[in-house]
Amino acid sequence: MNATFHDLKGASVFITGGGNGIGAALTDGFLAQGAQVAFVGRSDASDFVQKMGDEHGTAPCFIQCDITDTPALQAAMDQAVAAHGPLNVLVNNAANDMRYDATQISEADWDSQHAINAKAYFFACQKAAALMAPKGSIINYSSITYLMGLAGMVPYVTANAGITGMTRALAREWGPKGIRVNAIAPGWVFTEKQETMWATPASKAAFLEKQCLQEFMRPEDMVGGTLFLASSASAMMTGQTIVIDAGVVGTG
């Protein structure tokens, strides 16, 4: 833990996909700040929950559900609030970056990808707005893929462009309620999934050349920016997309 955000101690935090990859690093990071964390995921996370409890003295609340099942997702958020009190922070992190040949994408492929990468984000935000009292911070994970216009993953790229638009619109709509809505656009973060499914020595070397900082990004590199947006340290920031990518793309 490189920085302490004192206002996150005791905060009620809900994370989608908080049991693996970037999400697991975020769960760990919020627990290290003294926050009360609940997270959802499709796969059993009992071992991870036990590990976090051993390390931090407080275990996160894990609720197994499919985020594309909107009633189940919103019920899980109710359960988290029942356990930890009014919601302070929502992190929409769960996503699926499947690769497709654009000429071969079926309607079912398109719908399933947007159910995960767009629909679930909105309905988690919608529920969070009802559970935050009176203020709160929503952080939506997008991706630099839409800024780069990467080929081979059109549904994912399209959804992530939409996430930034949704973030701006909800920031404007819910600003009067004191709810801040921001996004984070990571670069290529080498999670276990990425290493197993997509990364090769050649592709990693080629991507590293695009970065200003010549280090491969890991899940823990996403924690600091997320904590900052969750904290009152960013109290007057909303409707923004922060890029954390070691310097691949430029904004502004």
Automatic annotation (TrEMBL):
GO terms for molecular function: oxidoreductase activity, acting on the CH-OH group of donors, NAD or NADP as acceptor. Keywords: Oxidoreductase. CDD domains: SDR_c. Residues 11-188 form the Ketoreductase domain. SUPFAM superfamilies: NAD(P)-binding Rossmann-fold domains (SSF51735). It comes from the Bacteria. SMART domains: PKS_KR. Pfam families: adh_short_C2 (PF13561). Gene3D superfamilies: NAD(P)-binding Rossmann-like Domain. PANTHER family: 3-OXOACYL-[ACYL-CARRIER-PROTEIN] REDUCTASE, SHORT-CHAIN DEHYDROGENASES/REDUCTASES FAMILY MEMBER. Belongs to the short-chain dehydrogenases/reductases (SDR) family. This is NAD(P)-dependent dehydrogenase, short-chain alcohol dehydrogenase family.
